[in-house]
Design goal:
The complex is a heterodimer. Chain A is mainly alpha-helical. Chain A contains 15 helices and five strands. In chain A, the strands form two sheets. Chain A has a three-stranded antiparallel β-sheet, with helices on one face. Chain A has a two-stranded antiparallel sheet with strand order 1-2. Chain B contains 21 helices and 23 strands. Classes of the chains: A mainly alpha, B alpha+beta.
């Protein structure tokens, strides 16, 4: 098999995936330098985080996936326990309670990003697929409990990621299309109930998304300024460090959630096509690894992780370009930020572990 | 993990279903990412122009650079105005969400009056969001300090701006000539070139400040500046610097002006002094006067009403706007008309019996001397101010010829010689002293350009010479006026006592009310406001005159008693530099 070029047996790294991620991180640092007002300290901190992330990936990739499986339920229960703890004694910032303080600040919802798809996979892959309706119901409960806990914090973005990671496992497990479509219809009918349950600021976000121009200086400001940044970038962009929207601080959250707007302003549509190409390459490689995986647990988990990564990207770009409501999600490997990079890289570590520990039939 | 787990599973079927799902998922990702690309194509290619414009609007702002107003100096270089740094409280509209709340909060720290708020709100409606609107002017140092302590509470929506405010260091001295600036009012806003007044709050309201507004104001510059989201200037893209206003040099001798104002301080009076050679106005006094500093930042209603409604009318410039019957002061000019038209010769005589009547009329025009002056030639008639001589001469000339002739001396077009202002009298006297050379009177002597220090002299707009049939006629008229002060029967002979120079003059006493035929004028019986106006015109020295003066003291009584001594003192001050002020100012000036 394509061992020579595709992975290193000693480090258990998948080279195409590794290169894709490194390239993305590099582009991310370049854009961050511009978006952060050429603050080198910011870059150093981000590089440190990336370093940790890649380190964790390296560690996880060395572990045989089958060794992890027995620990999955305990990880899940531990995670749910932490989420409950957050609601009781968590620290709040900006009106949401997401953090636990163990001497260092820690966000338990990050654990669930991995624990939920792993738990659902663990539960479903144990028996023949596609799963029975009864097991499906239990799987849904496995997903719903942490999602509700996270949504209560409230952290809509993470709740969205956690629920989709679980749902992707179910979808990939082979349930019938008829069942999928009827569930979707049911979900659409439930929307008013969801609206009723939302916080005021969340409703406001949806309303703002529907009509951003109505609140140009308040809620709609983010979207309007972001669209101006992207649109004024044009085909070729204004050039690195020359994006007026971002350099002159018109664009809010430019180093975090809205970094894609900075990139689009400075590098234009052509630059965006390159970036999307890299993302698509990583996604495709991920799907290929899922396809090649040799057991149900591995392929369901890898498939779910890759699709969740996609949701992450799509939700962010959709928000920044004004296609989707503003949901506070960073752009993976580009946005400045802490915990999410580590979680993400552990996820990629799992994917690589699946690929590099295959039993080689023709070795 | 035991391998037994997988025994019950159908590996091939599971594989197949999974591969199927992976392909569907991969296609879905492709489609959704393509959707992002389509969206970006729309934003970055289709709507590119639109967003480019928005991004430029976002960051490029045009800000006015107001020019520095020109200064005003007197003829010796004594500064008459100053531009002083003062602090005002200004609001940046685009950074304030709730104006009323802001006003409520700021008034807890700095006193803001109802009228400030009213004006502020009116101005707020008209101004652009990123240009500051003044809320309070002239903050005290205490207020500036207090604001600095609390400024963080306003999140940059309000700031202290330092600007240059006009200040008149001499106070009321020369107030009527110099004038004052005040805030631009709605009426002026309609007239002025708004772009040239962006960032300027003041405009000349009266006097030189008004008449030379264009020169003093200068030209407003502009800068296109790139600003960030907070409105702070990041970079200046293009800058058109302002052109500062020109400095003006007046003909006014401010120490003379001050001396005269002190002399007539007790009266309602007007004094104009002119340099005959140049037409330069040396002094233009109107008393009572007022402090122009009161008007600069808006006078309060109470003080203004007091000034406006005062019976002494301090706000009116008597020297220019005041209209008085010139009385006997014009006799020399009427005499010249008689000579010019051949109605009289220097030698022809008229008998004065104390009154004059038109043929067939009973009305008697009385002479000031009840017993009459007897036989009078022109010289004597001027010296003794014989009314009958001039009644008869005026009648013989006729009003049309008289009017035509007087106009050449600058007496009013519409009003003829019936009434005229102190300035006109002084100009006519100067023309007479020049033997016919008429020069338009000028307050401003020169202006200089602050950029290159180039001084340009303001040329007189009109300069003509009145040519009479015989140049000797001038001698007759001037001789008569000389005799008024130096002759033994002159009406103002007392004022020439101990004079170190020779001069010419003419008294005048103008009736305020008509005295009935059988009554006599008795000052004691009349209220002060019905007393006669005292007038005197003069020039000195007799040969090569350097100063021509007209003096009017409202309800002052007799011209010879009140006005003539004042005029003499004015000439003394100027010619003999008797004034301690003058000495001081010449020492300190250039």
């Amino acid at each position: 098999m394509q061992t020579r070029w595709s992975h290193n047996h000693f480090l258990h790294l998948d080279k195409p995936l590794l290169w894709g991620l490194l390239l993305l991180s590099f582009i991310g640092l370049v854009v961050l330098y511009s978006a952060g007002g050429q603050d080198l300290e910011l870059i150093v901190r981000q590089m440190l985080r990336l370093g940790f992330g890649f380190g964790f990936m390296l560690l996880i990739a060395r572990v045989r996936i089958q060794k992890i499986v027995p620990w999955v339920p305990w990880l899940y229960l531990f995670g749910v326990g932490l989420l409950v703890l957050v609601l009781v004694v968590g620290e709040s910032t900006k009106g949401s309670q997401r953090w636990l303080n163990f001497g260092f600040r820690f966000q338990p919802s990050e654990v669930m990003k991995l624990a939920v798809p792993m738990m659902v996979t663990w539960y479903l892959a144990d028996r023949p697929l596609p799963p029975s309706y009864g097991r499906l119901l239990l799987a849904t409960i496995i997903i719903t409990v942490p999602v509700i806990l996270v949504a209560k914090q409230p952290d809509l973005g993470t709740a969205l990621l956690i629920s989709s990671s679980g749902i992707f496992v179910i979808l990939l497990s082979g349930i019938s299309w008829r069942f999928i479509f009827s569930s979707l219809t049911l979900g659409a009918l439930c929307t008013p109930v969801l609206w009723y349950m939302m916080h005021d600021y969340q409703r406001q976000r949806v309303l703002t998304f529907l009509n951003p121009e109505k609140h140009p200086l308040t809620a709609g400001y983010h979207i309007i300024q972001s669209k101006i940044a992207i649109g004024s970038g044009g085909l070729y962009g204004k050039g690195w460090l020359n994006g007026t929207q971002s350099q002159l601080e018109f664009l809010p959250e430019r180093t975090t959630d809205f970094i894609f707007a900075v990139y689009s302003e400075e590098f234009g549509l052509l630059g965006v096509l390159v970036l999307l190409g890299i993302y698509f390459f990583i996604l495709s490689r991920g799907m290929y690894i899922a396809q090649q995986a040799q057991d149900s647990f591995s392929r369901l988990l890898v498939g779910s992780l890759v699709l969740t990564f996609f949701v992450h990207i799509f939700a962010n770009m959709g928000m920044v370009t004004g296609l989707l409501p503003v949901v506070g999600l960073p752009l993976p490997l580009m946005s400045y930020g802490g915990t999410s990079i580590i979680t993400l890289m552990i996820g990629f570590g799992l994917i690589m572990a699946v690929h590099t520990h295959r039993r080689l039939l023709f070795g | 993990m035991s391998s037994a787990r997988f025994i019950l599973k159908d590996a091939t079927s599971e594989n197949k279903i999974f591969s199927n799902r992976v392909i569907v998922a991969w296609l879905m990702m492709f489609v959704l990412l393509s959707l992002i690309v389509v969206r970006l194509y729309f934003l970055q290619v289709n709507a590119h122009e639109h967003y480019i414009t928005l991004s430029k609007d976002n960051r490029i702002k045009t800000l006015p650079l107001p020019p520095t107003r020109g200064l005003i100096y007197d003829r010796n270089g004594v500064p008459l105005v100053e531009n002083r740094v003062s602090y005002s409280l200004e609001v940046i509209p685009e950074k304030v969400k709730n104006i009323d709340f802001l006003l409520q909060e700021i008034s807890k720290i700095i006193a803001i009056e109802e009228k400030d708020i009213k004006r502020f709100k009116k101005q707020l409606k008209q101004s652009r969001r990123f240009i500051t609107v003044p809320l309070r002017y002239r903050l005290t140092k205490d207020e500036v300090d207090r604001f600095s302590v609390h400024s963080h509470r306003f999140f940059g929506g309000i700031e202290i701006k330092s600007n240059l405010t006009r200040y008149y260091p001499l106070g009321s001295t020369g107030a009527h000539v110099i004038g004052y600036v005040g805030r631009i009012n709605e009426h002026e806003l309609k007239i002025i070139d708004k772009s040239n007044y962006m960032g300027t709050n003041y405009i000349g309201k009266t006097g030189v400040e008004k008449y030379y507004e264009k020169e003093l104001h200068g030209k407003t510059g502009f800068q296109h500046a790139e600003t960030n989201a907070q409105g702070h200037i990041v970079r200046i893209l293009e800058r058109t610097p302002p052109v500062p206003g020109k400095n003006l040099y007046l003909n006014i001798d401010i120490s003379l002006q001050k001396d005269i104002e002190r002399l007539v301080a007790k009266h309602r009076a007007a004094v104009v002094a002119i340099e005959p050679k140049s037409g330069g106005v040396l002094a233009l006094v109107s008393m009572p006067h007022y402090d122009p500093n009161l008007f600069v930042n808006g006078i309060d209603t109470k003080t203004y009403h007091k000034l406006r409604d005062s019976l002494a009318r301090p706000l009116i410039n008597r020297a220019i706007r005041g209209q008085y019957p010139p009385g006997s002061t014009v006799k020399a000019f009427v005499g010249l008309a008689g000579l010019e038209y051949g109605t009289r010769t220097p030698r022809s005589r008229t008998w004065c019996r104390g009154w004059y009547s038109l043929k067939g009329h009973k009305h008697r025009y009385r002479d000031w001397k009840k017993s009459g002056h007897g036989s009078m030639n022109l010289h004597q008639a001027i010296e003794q101010s014989c009314d009958v001589y001039f009644y008869s001469l005026a009648h013989d000339l006729g009003i049309d010829r008289l009017h035509t002739f007087m106009r050449r001396f600058g007496f009013g077009e519409k009003t003829g010689i019936d009434i005229s202002g102190p300035l006109q009298l002084a100009v006519a006297t100067a023309t007479l002293s020049n033997r016919g050379r008429f020069t338009q009177p000028r307050v401003v002597f020169a202006m200089d350009d602050a950029r290159n220090n180039e001084m340009t002299v303001v040329p007189p707009t009109l300069q003509t010479t009145i040519v009479l049939k015989h140049a000797s006629y001038w001698n007759t008229a001037i001789g008569g006026m000389k005799a008024v002060v130096h002759g033994w029967r002159g009406t103002a002979k007392k004022v020439s006592k101990n004079s170190r120079y020779r001069f010419a003059g003419k008294t005048g006493t103008a009736q305020v009310i008509t005295i009935k035929q059988k009554e006599t004028y008795n000052a004691k019986k009349l209220a002060k406001k019905y007393h006669d106006h005292a007038l005197f015109v003069a020039f000195a020295p007799l040969k090569k005159p350097r100063i021509a003066v007209s003096v009017i003291v409202e309800n002052g009584g007799s011209g010879s008693k009140i006005a003539a001594p004042l005029a003499k003192k004015v000439m003394d001050y100027y010619l003999l530099q008797k004034s301690p002020l003058y000495v001081a100012s010449t020492k300190t000036s250039r």
